[in-house]
Design a protein that fits this description.
The chain is an alpha/beta fold and 170 residues long. The protein has 7 helices and 6 strands, in the order ααβαβαββαβαβα. The strands form 2 sheets. A 3-stranded parallel β-sheet has the order 1-2-3, with helices on one face. The chain has a 3-stranded parallel β-sheet with strand order 4-5-6. Helix 4 packs across helix 5. The mean pLDDT is 92.
């Protein structure tokens, strides 16, 4: 539904236009919810690597749609957490039924050189009316077993049990 709400991806700025220049650090915090959806992502990757930038993709990389070329591009850049202290890519596994396609994307990333321990996966909980605690634990445990850091996002904050789970995980 994102394209209906926000429009289709389009490239607005080059990396040179985003970075404010010396003496600022070469840190880019890209607030793009579909980096690989735009037509010029290859150019942006090239600018990031050629410029020696560290980059944070905090809005998330859609592992359900990742392909080998995009995974190799991600592996080629110095991707970082929001604080630029460690390697981190952000993604999401929100729907229980997307498990296989989610892990297929994780496998593509890993094959390209992005280890699962570099992934933090937002995990929407409390939105799906068919969701059970069993399904929550299955998602959580499958990610932990692969080395992925789950980050629960509580949809209904009045659900104290889910808020307590979120606090325990974080």
């Amino acid at each position: 539904i994102v394209p209906d709400k926000e429009g289709f991806p389009k490239s607005l700025n080059t990396i040179a236009e985003i970075w404010r220049g010396e003496p600022r650090p070469k840190h880019l915090h890209l607030l793009d919810n579909d980096f690989f959806g735009g037509p010029l992502w290859r150019d942006r990757i090239r600018e990031i690597t050629d410029g020696g930038f560290k980059v944070c993709f905090s809005q998330g990389i859609n592992t359900r749609l990742i392909n080998q070329e995009a995974a190799e591009a991600l592996a080629s850049v110095n991707y970082q957490s929001t604080k630029f202290k460690e390697h981190r890519l952000y993604t999401a596994w929100d729907n229980f039924g997307d498990g296989e396609v989610f892990f297929r994307g994780v496998d593509v990333l890993e094959k390209a050189g992005v280890p699962p321990k570099h992934l933090m996966a937002y995990m929407l909980i409390g939105c799906d009316p068919t969701e059970t605690w069993e399904r929550i634990w299955i998602r959580f445990n499958r990610m932990v077993e692969r080395g992925i850091s789950p980050y629960p996002m509580v949809f209904d904050k009045s659900r104290r049990d889910l808020v307590c789970f979120q606090r325990w995980v974080i």
